[in-house]
Amino acid sequence: MDRYRVDERIGGGATADVHRAWDRVAEREVAIKLFHSAPCPAQRHRQARELRILDRLRHPGLIPLYDSGIENGRTYLVMRLVPGPALADRIAGGPLPVEDTIGLGARLADALSYVHRTGITHRDVKPANVLLGPDGPLLGDFGVAQGADGNRSTTSGSVVGTAAYMAPEQVRGQPVGPPADIFALALVLLECLSGQREYLGSVTESAVARLLREPKVPEGLPSQFADLLRRMGDRDPSGRPDAREVAAVLGGAALTPLRPRRKRRVASLFKTATVAFSPG
């Protein structure tokens, strides 16, 4: 890693630390995700899978991978560093306006549409993995993503993801595909609107709640947006729209305005959503 000057730690999780760094060759700031040392075989498999997935993906709504390698037995990923808070931090400050939520949803759905077309399911769409930067929201952390071939480091019947944003099929340990990401995106957008998670309680209570009821869509939303959220939150995966349709409805449809007399152009606000690098 002689090419990089590794600076302060800016984030991290159970599997890796994220540092701000300087790329001496490209002369730019980057983010380096440095996995913890001496991983078990399952962790090595997960790291290798994340690297393969990130190396395939190129989309303005995703955080790009610049470089990777191994240093002193620790795998590292070099990615774009985008200044800005996580969506989770923004929501902690209060609900987002309806128009901003629609714009953010359109951008994320477009990114997911691309991801799904490449045969990948993210499996962990949540506000902490959406970062807000100057050029729009960016989805990150593909650490538990799964390819279309079903190759994954978890065994059949196991549960992968974050409980608060899991689809019913994830909670049941059933096969998971792109519809699970759509359900999670619906929960993210509802959280943007309300300022709190849709399914509260302990991990178990939150997970079980979605098996008993579909997400509640607040009143007063543009009718087309409200209908889309209901379909995205369908407990039956086959009843959910795909990401391409979600992006089309949110990004190009003429939504019924919340207050018609103000004649606000929702589409003009799609550019206001922002995001950055997810520590993962």
If you had to describe this structure to a student in words, what would you say it looks like?
- With 280 residues, this protein is α+β, with helices and mostly antiparallel strands.
- It folds into two domains: 77 residues, Phosphorylase Kinase, domain 1 (2-Layer Sandwich), CATH 3.30.200; 186 residues, Transferase(Phosphotransferase) domain 1 (Transferase(Phosphotransferase), domain 1), CATH 1.10.510.
- Helices cover 33% and strands 18% of the residues.
- It contains eight helices and nine strands.
- Strands 1-2-3-5-4 form a five-stranded antiparallel β-sheet, covered by helices on one side. A two-stranded antiparallel ribbon has the order 6-9. A two-stranded antiparallel sheet has the order 7-8.
- A hairpin with a 2-residue loop joins strand 7 and strand 8.
- The two termini are 21 Å apart.
- 44% of the residues are buried.
- The C terminus is likely disordered.
- Its EC number is 2.7.11.1.
- InterPro entries: Kinase-like_dom_sf, Prot_kinase_dom, Protein_kinase_ATP_BS, Ser/Thr_kinase_AS.
Which secondary structure elements does this structure contain, and how are they paired or packed?
Blueprint lengths: L3 E9 L3 E8 L4 E8 L5 H16 L8 E7 L2 E7 L6 H6 L5 H20 L2 E2 L8 E4 L2 E4 L6 E2 L20 H4 L6 H17 L8 H10 L10 H10 L10 H10 L28
Antiparallel strand pairs: 1-2, 2-3, 3-5, 4-5, 6-9, 7-8
Helix pairs in contact: 3-5, 3-8
